[in-house]
Amino acid sequence: MIGTLCIFMLLSSTAAWGSVGLWSQRGVRNGTGGGSRDRCTCDAFLPSSTFPNRDLVVVEETAVEISHQLEHEMGKLEDYETKLTAYAERIIQLTVEIEKIEKNPHDYNDADMDEVKVEIKQVEALVKELQLSIASSTTVFESLHEQITAMVETLDRMEKTYDKNMVLVTRREYIKVQMELEECERRHQELFNPNIGSCAHSGIIRVSKPIVSQLNAHLNSGYKFGGWGKDSKPVPDRESMYWYSGSTSSSIFEIKFYTSYKNLILRNQFQHHNLQSGWSGTANNFIVRDNTLYYQINSPFGLAKLNFTTLEYESRVIAKASNRFSYTNTPNQNFDFAADETGLWVTYATEESSGLMVIAKINETSFGVEEEWQTSVYKPGVSNAFMVCGVLYAARRVDFETEEIFYKYDTRTKQESHISVLFKKFQDNFSNLDFNPTDQRLYMYNDGYYVSYHLWFNHTTKATVAPPFLLTS
Q: Which residue has better confidence, 357 or 464?
């Protein structure tokens, strides 16, 4: 009887098991005396690298640490609310007392005046302390965003290299932490930036550090063209919806919708529209407004809109618009749609203007141009542009990691000016940059990554809803 012995030779120094990359089998005949025996040697080649448990543990520990920090910040926000109410009430009382003193100065002596002055100094000291606390919270949020960005990069790398199921639990923890941070920032914004939707300001004064959500839904950095964001005028029950469209060329063939930020991160779409059946477009400066996609088409060269509620398609031609002038970063971006607090816009250049940008206000019902404004900024020298409260803001590249908002044109006053508001990019190039009035954020599609920014505006005293002591002196 012939017996077979299989010896497993694990040709790897690792102690951890992974998936077997290759099996080979060798048969050896060895006869001794009157009998014989075959020996079958099976070689299992294990992967050269093992699953990085240490990296996963670090990510998990970081997630727990961030959660604790967020709990602490949420507690501070509740404390801020209490202090704001108390300080506001005390300021109102002091205002009433001062008015009484001004009306009847003879009824008060020096001691009364000194007492009021002391109280004012005390409130002033408390306000300064609160301002420092608020500033420290903002710094914490920025630090947490940096940590979360590092976490998602690690998870993406591990997901591509190792078993996705082993990373999924940690990714869920990361999403939970990111959602907590979003909620904490939302409450912070409601407390200290209550002017969302207000246009009573003199413009942008600051842009936050880039908030990197993740690589696109295709998990492919080759999808450098496209856009993402929120509906700037959401229909009922879709206020939390996000959209994304990406391509390896400057064209738009499809668009995906997600019910929430969490599902965007999980790449769990609820709608997917294929635009190749007669609806495809070009360029990347498209937006979603009122559940309608506004984008550029080439045949005929003009504007298009596709309503996802009714699936009605419509196009328009702007006779003067030229197809020779695009933004610095990407080709064919001749029309750039934008939406703000005042409605729908599109910008382009003409032969008549020699490439200078033209701003046009679009009537959303008729899909026609209501009014046009001529600017003095040369479109090929601009990396992208967006609208806020009827004001055009143009950006240009400074270096690999820095962008500058350098120009603004106010359609209300027909005044233009040069400004300098610097902000950082996650990657060098970007194909889409748009403002969303529902949350006062900039959304950038940055070489395949979802990136967003908070904006700060120079609100006038009249427009400021918060108590006056929150204003920087």
A: 357
At 161, the amino acid letter reads T
Q: Which two tokens stand for residue 426?
A: 């996650």
Number of Cβ atoms within 10 Å of the Cβ of 23: 10
**Of 307, 214, 295, nearest in space to 261 by CA:** 214
323-327, Cβ contacts within 8 angstroms, sequence gap of 24 or more = 323/298, 324/349, 324/351, 324/355, 325/349, 325/355, 325/379, 325/380, 326/283, 326/379, 326/380, 327/379, 327/380, 327/382, 327/383, 327/384
- The CA distance from 306 to 210, in Å, is 31
Q: Which among 25, 139, 127, 41 has a CA at the least distance from the CA of 86?
A: 127
Residue type, 267: R
Q: What residues does each domain of the chain span?
A: 4-45, 53-190, 199-470
Contact 414, 373 (CB under 8 A): yes
298: enclosing H helix or E strand: strand 292-298
- 410, exposed or middle or buried, with CB in 10 Å at 0-12, 13-18, 19+? middle
pLDDT in tens, 239-287: 999 999 999 988 899 999 999 888 898 889 999 999 987 888 988 899 9
CATH of span 199-470: 2.120.10
Q: Which two tokens stand for residue 214?
A: 């993740």
Q: What is the pLDDT of residues 351-408, one digit of tens each?
A: 999 999 999 999 999 999 999 999 999 999 999 999 999 999 999 999 999 999 999 9
Which candidate, 306, 310, 321, 315, places its Cα nearest to that of 355?
Answer: 321
Which helix or strand (DSSP H or E) is residue 110 part of?
helix 110-161
> Which amino acid is it at 251?
S
CA distance 252 to 226: 7
SS3 content of the chain, % helix, strand, coil (to 5): 30, 35, 30
Can you name the residues that pair with 410 across neighbouring β-strands? 391, 415
Question: Do 463 and 208 form a contact (C-beta atoms < 8 A)?
Answer: no
Residue 176 identity: K
| pLDDT value at residue 164 | 53
Q: In whole angstroms, how far apart are CA 396 and each of 225, 264, 402?
A: 18, 29, 9
Pull the structure tokens for residue 180: 């907590």
Q: 53-190 adopts what CATH topology?
A: Helix Hairpins (1.10.287)
Q: Of 342, 216, 340, 233, which is closest to residue 267 (Cα–Cα)?
A: 216
Which pair of tokens denotes residue 172?
């869920």
